[in-house]
Fold these 2 entries.
Entry 1:
Amino acid sequence: MATTTAVLDISSEDLQPGSPLSISATTTLYQTGLTTGLELVDYGAGRLTEASAGDALAEALGTADTSNYVFLCNKSTNIEHYIKVGIHDTLVGHLGSEEWLFIPWNMGDADAEINIEAEDSGTIPYEYAIFKSTFTLPAKT
Amino acid sequence: MATTDASITINSDITGTPIAITASMKLKKFQSNVGIEETTGLRSKKFTATTAVEIVANTEGTTGKASKVYIRNTGDDPAQFFYVALNNNAAAADTTETIGKLYGGPAGTGDWMLMPWAATTATTHDIVVAPSTTNLMTLEYMVFQE
């Protein structure tokens, strides 16, 4: 059985004056509802250009309503560059330069792909990792 | 200007070559190197019904500004989870607005998430959760905003 852990630390001395912030959280990524670790992963790097409009970082090709986790990092150092991140037709948020996200993703239905889109002009390098419960390869054309 | 740092470390032996991902970021204002300066503070909420509940209203953010949302299931049961969604359809697993599920974990190792949030002025951008059971479940969450 594979073991995958994700550790988060958030800290600030001055966001809350007089009350330093320190959040630490650790999770082990399990298969849906079990204590068996995930055994599928898809990770890599890419480049987005504004001209490409929206692209699917991941299509919802696995089993719906399962445990999956997405890490995505905007590697651009240009503060004008951000990535619009969405699920299906819904905008989740803007991932600024040198920012990352880590979210669960349950592939709610066949349309629930994760979309990414580069803004502003230029090319945005990114890195990602998707830890999955199930995976189905795209159909051959 | 406040400085807030967030780091993630992911380690995995799924592949023959171990995966080790580390990333750090400063929580910044939109298209800026200036740190965000507002927060809701850390919130904790208990649930005893499977009804979808709004935990962050779109009105708590500002359109066009940077926001980040941290959420964690503090429960110990790996079979119990919260759906996390935008809009108010979290209870439906097949809704396209559902982001994912945060499961509990033994000894406080429940799932967490940290995501950017587009606080568009519309109920479609409310953040909603729905517990999987009527057993007592607890969520902690915090919004960081410009």
Entry 2:
Amino acid sequence: MRELLGTGVSSGVGVGPVRVVSGTVPEPPADPFSGDPVAETARALEALEAVGRELESRAQAAGGEAKDMLAAQALMARDPDLAGEIRIGISAGLTAARAVYESFGFYRELLSGASDYMSARVSDLDDVRDRAVARLMSLAVPGAPESDEPYVLITQDLAPADLALLDPRQVVAFVTEEGGPIGHTAILARAMGIPAIVSCPGVLELKDGERVLVDGASGRLTVDPEDEQIRRAKAAERARAEAVGSATGPGRTKDGHPVPLLANIGGPKDVDRALASGAEGVGLFRSEYLFLDREVPLTEEQQIAAYREVLEAFPRVVVRVLDAGADKPLPFLPPAAVEPNPALGERGLRLLRRHPHVLRGQLRALAKAAEGLPADRLRVMAPMVTDAEEARVFTAACREAGLTQAGIMIEVPAAAIRARDIAEEVDFFSLGTNDLAQYVFAVDRQVTSLTRLQDPWRPALLDLMAFAAEAAVGAGKGCGVCGEAAADPIMACVLAGLGVTSLSMSAPSLPLVRAALAAHTLDECRAAAAAARAARTETQARRAARAALPALETLGL
Amino acid sequence: MAERLVRVESMVGLHSRPAAEFVKAAAQCPVEVSVGRHTGELVNAKSILAVLALDARPGEHLRLCAEGEGAEEVLDRLASLFTQFSETNA
């Protein structure tokens, strides 16, 4: 019996045979082809037709956006012009695999020269190409495997599109060799409620079909587990489920200190799930999600309707104004120039100051959406604020629009360090732990091989969060957390202990966080926070916090 | 040769779902159908890759052409899709 240890990012226990999805499809060699070009062409077109059929049937099985995307991919596989290119390639002496590869390459170039939206389709095109080439070269087809029985999915790191297509009833757990607690695998696994472990070295060496036990809470993977181990893991899982079931009502510590538990949402479509998980409000409404994939901004009326729907559902809603730039470009908010490093360029409030009419328009729409509702229901905050001067500009813009609650996200280390200055300019803070980690550890969030450096338990990040919380409390203002760190029930207790006044996370994480808070007193949370900050490494910090929180065991954590 | 001038009404241009629906409808037509900008080159309307590469934006005008028996009916049907795109605002 072997054990592998990674970072548990989505709690739950899964047992099943392993399916390893590895590697990419190689470029087919440009060897000359001397066989029958007619038969070779037929072989190429048959492979594409098979890919088209497979994508078509997956489209039928999928729903929503995944369905449209797959249906479009099926059309690509059956494209008559593409078939023409392939025919020409083969008659000029290419193998079927090579001709398919080169013909896709021609369209790939055509599409990547077009708009941003189109460039994003290039990866869909590559996926179709890889499936066809894999068939022609008799290689394993990339992406999520087909399986008749539920399995544990093991990958280096999956593309979000692949993840979205997985059937939650088929996949009992995910384990990735790379990735981190804030990577898309982790976020999606939590959203789908599937147990998951990330950054688990050695996991790709497992053999297909080997039975494993995955514990997404502890991050432990056991190969060929004994019945007793499975029983114990499941018992802990049950204890967690019971704790979750019995903790209801607003977020508070055991001794009654309130810590409102809020949901992160992208639009009105997420409201129902947030309400079902017992969210007391919205701590982060990512308003840019309303605008993504659109060539022109929503009209004022469309914006007002979307905001109003959310504002009517909750007693408190924090809306983040458009956080565009870097990994979320919006066509109507371009930066001044092409930037070699967009994460350090014009994004968030920086970009909105370049396009002040967009900010003014959004604030006006927000103010109209909140008309007739209690004054403190709508709170508006700006992303990527660096200093007090920027905070002052944003607050002034909010006041001008008639908005009474203006806050900022603390994502830039300078803002955390000098939070005292900024607290005087705004009504509240919200700690964006994902970006704060990216900037303080100087690690790009998109570089998956470095995500271990972005662990929110690193004491440097804990210190920065403590600075911000202390400054807010000192000025009598609120300091929430809206990053993925808030979704870790143990970290949630530490954050409460640091003085954070509310926690916002994706809806499925709320119940376990509520249970962990309800099981500990504020003094215990403070002791855990102090112990974690006194540690020197992320592992020690996590261990020290656990030791200071006595009820974790009974919660199965 | 039959011809129609249509305006791209959909919010996303002739991309994603509108593009797929247009190509699917064109592929079912018994005659050859092409599409392009008013002044530009015409491409095969039955090819999703060619249609996507046009990169037609919202508000742009496109020319639909068909040749052969039933060309007029084919173009009526395809042109009507463009007004449907605006209604669903896809």
